[in-house]
Design brief:
single chain, mainly alpha, 0% strand
């Protein structure tokens, strides 16, 4: 009977951590960032600095080209509004030239967007590749450390 009663025994309520504002604390609290840890991370990233610099430069080019979209849209809107006011007095050749101008702006916009997407893809590939190389390098260092400790068999507690 006691095993049966233990199943239905009233359990204590779950305690929810509450933040200083009275709301439930959903994020895990982390300790302070140690300067030695940042130095260690920097030494792990240092051999791959050229890849990270290349990724950042490509990312900046991508963002700059993305930011040209609204400017091209502004040119298009300003041109069509200005031409709309004097449309009645234009000849057929001028109307055709205006339409070509609008098409060229839209084509330029599409070209800039396409190149921007290509730069974005290369940025993702380069940065992900650099991150994977850093992980592989750290794992290789840990493996070498473990093999050295296994050979001495007295520093296993330090891993």
């Amino acid at each position: 009977m006691s095993a049966f009663a233990a199943i239905f025994k009233k359990k204590p309520p779950l305690r929810i951590k509450v933040g200083p504002d009275g709301e439930p604390d959903e994020e895990q609290r982390y300790g302070k960032i140690d300067l030695a840890l940042i130095r260690r991370m920097g030494t792990s990233l240092l051999p791959f600095k050229n890849l990270y610099i290349l990724g950042c430069v490509l990312g900046l080019i991508h963002i700059s080209m993305e930011m040209l979209g609204p400017k091209l849209m502004q040119w298009l809107i300003n041109f069509t509004l200005a031409q709309g006011k004097i449309r009645a007095s234009l000849s057929a050749a001028q109307v055709w030239a205006n339409q070509k101008h609008v098409v060229w702006i839209v084509a330029l916009w599409a070209l800039v967007l396409g190149i921007s997407i290509i730069f974005q893809r290369f940025t993702i590939l380069i940065m992900a590749g650099a991150g994977e190389r850093v992980q592989f390098s750290v794992r290789r260092q840990l493996l070498h450390q473990r093999h050295r400790c296994d050979a001495r068999s007295k520093c296993l507690g330090h891993l």
